[in-house]
Every structure is written in C-alpha cells, then in structure tokens.
Amino acid sequence: MKHTKIAELLKSDLFLQDFTVKGWVRAFRSNRFIALNDGSTLNNLQCVVDFENTPEEVLEEINVGAAIEVRGMLKESEGKGQRVEIEAKEIKILGIANPEDVKKTILSPKRHSLEKLREQAHLRVRTNTFGAIMRVRSQLSFAVHQYFNKNGFNYVNTPIITGSDAEGAGEMFKVTNFDIKNPPKKEDGSIDYKEDFFGKESNLTVSGQLEAETYALGLGQVYTFGPTFRAENSNTSRHLAEFWMIEPEVAFCDLDGNMDLAEDFIKYVIQYILENCEDDLAFLEDRLAQEDKSKPQAERSPMLLREKLRFVVENQFKRVSYTEAIDILKNSKPNKKKKFNYIIEEWGADLQSEHERYLVEKHFKSPVILFDYPAKIKAFYMRLNDDGKTVRAMDILFPGIGEIVGGSQREERLDVLETKMKELGVDEKELWWYLDTRRFGTCVHSGFGLGFERLVLFATGMGNIRDVIPFPRTPKNAEF
Ligand code: 4AD
Ligand code: MG
To answer: Counting atoms of ligand 1 from 1, which one is nearest the CA of 240?
Structure first.
C-alpha cells in the first residue's frame, strides 16, 4: 500500500478508511500514543497503538528516533490537541533507534541549545525548529524561481569555478590540483600556474554578476541563484564562507528600475511564505517570542514575526541617498555620544553594520534602500554619476539583519570603465570578455545580489546565519 503524507492526513476527512504512514517517532506515551512526524509538516500525527494486539518485540522498538510504518484507520480524535488520529492495525519497525544512544544526541526529547544542535547538523532537521526553518527555506527558494519566471526572466547558471574576481575584494578560495607541498615553479621561483589544471589561477566564484551581465546583454533579463564563496575571516552571525546568492541582471534598466525590481521581488517572496508556510511561521513566531522573554527589554523585537513580515510587504521601503544618511548619522545620538565603535566624521566613510542598523531600526523603523555611494568604497563596475565622486550603487538594509541586498547600475561606457579599472588595478587582460560587452552594443543595465541566507534569517526570525543553511561553512568549520 502506498503511504500517505502526514500533512495530507491531518487535513483529511476520509474517516474510517485505512491509510499507511511512514515517519520517525517523536514521542511514545503510555505504550499507547505515538507522535509520528514525516517532515511533510510541523505537526505530528497521533497513532494509537492497540498494545494488546501488538507483538512485544515491536512495542519494544517503538522508541524516539526510530523510523516506523503504521497502517490503520483514520478517525476523529477524542483526545485534545489533535483533530484526527490513526488507529493502528499494524506497525512495522523500519529503522531502530537505541534509546541509550539516542540519549546522547539531540534527538532526545528535551531542550537543546542552538549551539548543540549545530554540532549535530545531520540530525537537527528532525527537530521542530529546524524542520520549520528548512521548509520555509525551501518555499522561499521556490518563490524566487516563480517570481522571476512569472516576470519573464531567464535562469542562467554562471560558473562556480572562475578566473575572475567580480568584487575585486580578493577574498577568494583558490582552486588547484597542484601538490601543495611541491607545486611546479617558474625560473624566478614563483608558482607556475600554466601547469595547473586550468592553465591559470582559478578560484571559487564570489559572485556570478560579471558573467550574468554578459547574458543580460543578450537575453534581456536574467537571474542566477547559486552558491558563492568568500574567504573573508568574518566570524559573525551574518557571514558564511559558502552562501547562496540570487542575482538578477536587466538590460535597459537604470538604478530606479533596479530598486523597484528589488523591492517588488522581496515583497513577493515574503508574501508567498505568509500564504504558504502558516504553521511553520506560527511556530517560529512563538519560538522567537519565547526567546525574547529572556532578553532585556531593549533587545526584544518590537513586532511578532509575522507582523514584521507583513510590515515589509505592506510598506514602501525608504529610499535615502548615502549623503542624506551620513547627515542623519553625524547628527545621531550614538555618534555624538561616541557610542558607535566607528564614529562618523565625514562624507566618504564606509558604513558599518552598527550604522546600517541605526538607520533601519532606530531612525526610519523600516527597510531602507541607500543609494549613490561614494565611488571610493564601491566596486569598479558601478556607474559613475555626473558629480564624478558617487556611483549608482544601492544597498537594501533590513531590520535585525543589516545589508540584505547589494547592487548597482553598471558602468556601460567603455572609456569610463577602463579608466576606473586602471585606477583600481583591476586586470583588463583578465576581463577582456567583460569589456567586449561595452564594445558591442553596450547599454544601460543594472542588477543586484541578494544573500539568500540573510533573507531566510529575516523570514524565520532566527538570530544566527549558521541556523538557516543545512550545513554551514564558516572559519575553522567544514564538518559534514
Ligand atoms: O554586496 P555583495 O558583495 O554584492 C555582490 O557580490 C554583487 N556582485 C551582487 C550583484 O550586484 N549582482 O553581496 C550581495 C549580498 C549582500 O548584500 C549579502 O546579502 C550577501 O550577498 N552576502 C553574504 N551573505 C552571507 N555571507 C557572506 N559572507 C556574505 N557576503 C555577502
Ligand atoms: Mg555589499
């Protein structure tokens, strides 16, 4: 008999019919009530065991963590806490879980810290919290593809191994198959990359943008959604060494169009999970509210999780130029009282996350799009404004998260781009193909990158980015 998903049965009215379900035991009370979870929903199915007619050896193996199959009749439940239950007729043990061993893991039914759960990332998806997070993550990524598909974008897969450094930040993981103890050397003693697998230095991509740009200038509207890698040694709750980025790129689109697209896109995917992840979001909302209780008043979230999500969907993001933002920050209390770690003294300063969070959480109390940054603190490919000192960049800042999106209108003028690359020491020979796009049919175009895990952080109300990706990669940690 084909087995039925628990999510389906919990909504079903097909009483007195027989069903088979398969899942993992979450609890077993009084030798009679199994709470069974199969991952299709946060909610467990209660299976009532007829223990007199169940073999002793089967009863003994119905332990927390075991995989079992239950065949039985769907009934309206008499007990509190559930609408329906399965009256078991036959139980099969599919995979045992020894209670003594389970005790040593996070499967044991008690509260475990998020740190503890991280150490057992291979098992944590069997907890309510991680089941909920990962279902929301999955729904969000579906919504991403749906949004772009509905809006006429082409999905492109940009390379993961690349010879270029899109951000010019140099924080790249090298890719080589040299014997690292004994790489071939040139006469002057330097490593001879001509001998390496790709015949040149190569690395894991930090962004698919440059390649995506070439595709936008042919397909019109494209997006990437793939893994990106950064060897920055930032041990924060917002940084991963391996994270997923969504990067749309649009021809004949300026910075205003880019901001409109980013805002519309974010609202769409958040609205999608509000409509499709009700149980999981309700659970995560409660979790957050519980967690907040143990925090000092000032650190508590002013809104419940779904209120926060609805706020984003229903309100316009504030659009503020970098110059206006600097004025606000200069005159802010924490700046005057020297409470910021980095005091804002003058125009041109790079914004730290403490400044971004001040703007979003204290000043505007809303998502903010900052635009027209100083050219000096941004990447080489951003379009220079007529003032000669700012570029058409935009960052979207979110409450509790800080920067969630970074993007820009791209410099489409060959001469300006070349000058800029020379200034910043970006190798023109390396990027000959990128420059070609400015030689052949160049046009105004724009795009942005959204860090998917930062979106999932916001959507789930979690506090640490390590808890919204199945197996986080961070400095000194690549377990699993
Ligand atoms: O601002 P970034 O560095 O922009 C780019 O890479 C552009 N090439 C994107 C583009 O225009 N196509 O990164 C974009 C976003 C950030 O706003 C942030 O959300 C996320 O990627 N991000 C990270 N997320 C997790 N861990 C890290 N180490 C991240 N670094 C950036
Ligand atoms: Mg950025």
So the answer is: 26
